[in-house]
Amino acid sequence: MTGKYQKVFERSITDPNGFWGEAAEQIHWYKRWDKVLDDSKKPFYRWFTGGETNTCYNTLDRHVEAGRGDQTAVIYDSPVTNTVRYYSYREFRDLVAKFAGALRKMGVGKGDRVIVYMPMVPEALIATHACARIGAVHSVVFGGFAANELSVRIDDATPKVIVSASCGIEVARVIPYQPLIEAAIELADHKPDKVVVLQRPQHEWALKPGQLNFYEELEKASPVECVPVLATDPLYILYTSGTTGQPKGVVRDNGGHLVALNWTMKNIYNINQGEVFWAASDVGWVVGHSYIIYGQLIYGATTVVYEGKPVGTPDAGAFWRMIEQHKVKSLFTAPTAFRAIKREDPNAELIKKYDLSKFEILFLAGERTDPDTLEWAQKSLDGRPVIDHWWQTETGWAIAANCMGIEYLPVKPGSPTKPVCGWNVQVLDENCKELPRGQQGSICVQLPLPPGTLPTLWNNDERFLKSYVTDFPGYYNTADAGFMDEDGYVYIMARTDDVINVAGHRLSTGAMEEVLARHQDVAECAVVGVADNFKGQLPVGFMVLKAGVTRPHEEIVKEVVKMVRDQIGPVAAFKTATVVDRLPKTRSGKILRGTIQKIADNEPWKMPATIDDPVILDEIKSALETIGYAAARKETAESGAA
Ligand code: COA
Ligand code: AMP
């Protein structure tokens, strides 16, 4: 018997025009589309060409006009500042309309870019929706990135305005943003016209000419109406790590994004209008874009801006307190957050203090949910569904999931379940041939991708083609490797590029290598992501020093650790490096990062046939042991921990 999921899925693949055309009826259009799927410029597929819409009208105005103006749109809960605030749809629409007016007064118009560098405050949502309202393109940069990373994004996006805040607040420290923003602008070739600053009492920013106060500008401005934009016009650019230090500017359009996210709210997450769906992520990541900034508001549900951590704000009961206080129906977070909770409260004692009767489903993504974390979450949550789902910045929404609004399929530990509607997932070998079930290969998606996915990279069609659609003609290359089992469940096992995943954050080892290589004493280096029980992976650096360098190695290590923190940011969590005499390479000179990683992880590895000098691998092994890394892993494996 074919289940409901299978039927809906098959229709999405065989009749994408009908499937997404119907889904698009739920969205407000100023002008209907000419074509649902436009394949006239393959492989640059576009959705809803000719259509005109406005994302902000769909997220705010239409709900107010439909009589839901008093419903809560946004809940702001900030344990680090002791604040809880609720915004109704009407209130939020009015704030956004005024800030849009302020941006317009600063000269921001349709198509202009605005960089948003803010902590988890509701003003980040006001700024992004205000951009959408006037057809400007926002680019949110994660607050954990340093000035240099921000400057690279400023040069690529060339924003007219940067919207920021006077500080961010981490558990143990207040982070003033002024030096960071000013250093980034100083480093960049492009100079924005204005910087708008949300003043926070924890640390004020002494404003200079060209730097404006967020609420003063908002109060002075007149509200403005939504501007119709093309469905294919860009809504935002979100930079993500690639193989090199130059991040990829993933573009999201307006029409396809509205249609797709609206569809996911009920079909994947089983959320209804008026219900609270909390994504405990950050506005700087794609999860934050889709399920803090946009998804809930497109659908008429309630979103949550949480300025805190799973632990330490104040304890490992923070998530349960939030769920009770705000009547959260579903929570979405990264497995690493649950590992953090488990580490502090292994028997989940704190859950018992709270009333979780409204809570139904836990969704996890950002990295593979390891079976131990899955089991602990299931047990701690009294058998409520715990749903791993797999996606990427590029895709904007889940490629594989258990579609809880369609049919709850049996959960298999280690798998994010099956491809979501619209995603024709296949596992291919290097000759682009589909592999039999159970065999590991490159996970690819047959083109066209569904709506809401990246149409291209910002100002870089060439890199889009090279990164995603060249290696496997006719397919999108996810750069994830894995397999599908006999039942069609997907398993994501590893990346095929130099991207690593640290505490649910996607980072480029290539970018870290570029920083290490800039150190005066470093001749050559490699950074690999090695397994870590808590953060999933951690970067470890290997450096070969220039001939004649006699300084103590600890000093050099300290310096490169500081360089990565200063130039990429604390989020890189780069704390370990070691000096080696040589790096293992193939005869053609390629560094064998994969082999180094396997040695560090105590995984079985084969001597690469093309290796230049096998002895070097022994040297790497002892270098790892010297920094306690391999030894620590061995101990963990023996103690049977995750
Ligand atoms: N601004 C400034 N610094 C930041 C920052 C921000 N927005 N976010 C993180 N950092 C800093 C942290 O303070 C930490 O600094 P430290 O080296 O001085 O301790 C460093 O960056 C590393 O941060 P992180 O990896 O987040 O570690 P953590 O110990 O602070 O927190 C978790 C661990 C698991 C609680 C946290 O990583 C988490 O919640 N991860 C989930 C990620 C996520 O939501 N991903 C999106 C997919 S759902
Ligand atoms: P990002 O673009 O930051 O969302 O990171 C995307 C990458 O994170 C994917 O390509 C995967 O490597 C990894 N990832 C995200 N979610 C999952 C998941 N549920 N299972 C396995 N890997 C995941």
UniProtKB/TrEMBL annotation:
Residues 512-590 form the AMP-binding enzyme C-terminal domain. Residues 66-446 form the AMP-dependent synthetase/ligase domain. GO terms for cellular component: intracellular organelle lumen. One of its GO terms (molecular function) is propionate-CoA ligase activity. Gene3D superfamilies: 3.30.300.30, N-terminal domain of ligase-like. CDD domains: PrpE. InterPro entries: ACAS_N (IPR032387), AMP-bd_C (IPR025110), AMP-bd_C_sf (IPR045851), AMP-binding_CS (IPR020845), AMP-dep_synth/lig_dom (IPR000873), ANL_N_sf (IPR042099). Residues 5-58 form the Acetyl-coenzyme A synthetase N-terminal domain. Belongs to the ATP-dependent AMP-binding enzyme family. This is Propionyl-CoA synthetase.
